[in-house]
Amino acid sequence: MTQATLRGRALPAPDLMGTALQLAARGIPSLPLRAGKVPFGNCPTCVGNACGGRPNMKTPGPCQCPGVCHAWAAATTDPAVLTSPAWTDAWRRAVAVAYHPGGAGLTVLDLDDADATAWARQTLPATRTVPTTRGEHWIYRGTMRSVNGVRPGVDIKSAMSYARYLGPGTGAMAELPGAVRALAVTEPSPARPVWQAVTVPARSRGEGCPHRTPAYLERGIAMAEQRITAARSAVHATVYGAFLAVLSTHGRCGCLTETHVSRLFAAAQAKGETARHCTDAWNNALTTLGL
Q: What's residue 291's pLDDT?
């Protein structure tokens, strides 16, 4: 089959780039997904958001990276970016197209199974629906914060999140109802610091910390960030496991700083976790390890 071309460049087959350009024309920012249906990992310059991030991220930064970095924050409606050499290469290796619902003024209720779908049909106002492998996406007009696991089989994808594009769907799109917004409301927790400093045990005289090599620590933090970012389900458990892995290696030697922990929290919150959930997971990991 002859591939279509755009501006003289060969397009990938299937034409994922073409789908992204169609979404861009409708004001919907999109990005490619790699195998596993997750965003492409950051390039070396952008690992750990060392570059400062992208302008549409919660924490603005000067990143001018031409690659598909920063997960949902890479989503764009700019045809020049979508068809750039770096993105064209990514489209060739991609398996699907994703979009940033919040960037398009939308909220996606991701219903992951038949029970969740049945609950939505009985509880929520009808809106545009798109069938998925195991359930449905219900798409509403309006934005809110993204939260995973608001009830069994139900995730909310809107601001600072991405959803896989599975077609235009059917039905008229309704305004985001209060019932969906209420799903993201949690009881306030007692005031506590964003993260709890790790107590450093006394070391014997002359004993050096084996983990102070910057590359070793950076690799551990980057791997934890990637593990959290790649999570497609059980996000709570994944975040806790990543925190536990970091603390089990670096929690007793005084290597971790507030900057490191903030990076882990930021990765978790980009997947829809709240600051409260991050703090609880961190403190639970500390308790488990006796720290």
A: 65
pLDDT of residue 267: 86
Which parts of the chain have pLDDT scores under 70? 1-14, 55-62, 186-214, 253-254, 291
pTM over 0.70: no
SS3 annotation, the chain: CCCCEECCEECCCCCHHHHHHHHHHCCCCEEEEECCCEECCCCHHHHHHCCCCCCCCCCCCCCCCCCCCCHHHHCECCHHHHCCHHHHHHHHHCCEEEECCHHHCEEEEEECCHHHHHHHHHHCCCCEEEECCCCEEEEEECCCECEEEEECCEEEEEEECCEECCCCCECCCEECCHHHHHHCCCCCCCCCCCCCCCCCCCCCCCCCCCCCCHHHHHHHHHHHHHHHHCCCCCHHHHHHHHHHHHHHHHCCCCCCCHHHHHHHHHHHHHCCCCHHHHHHHHHHHHHHCCC
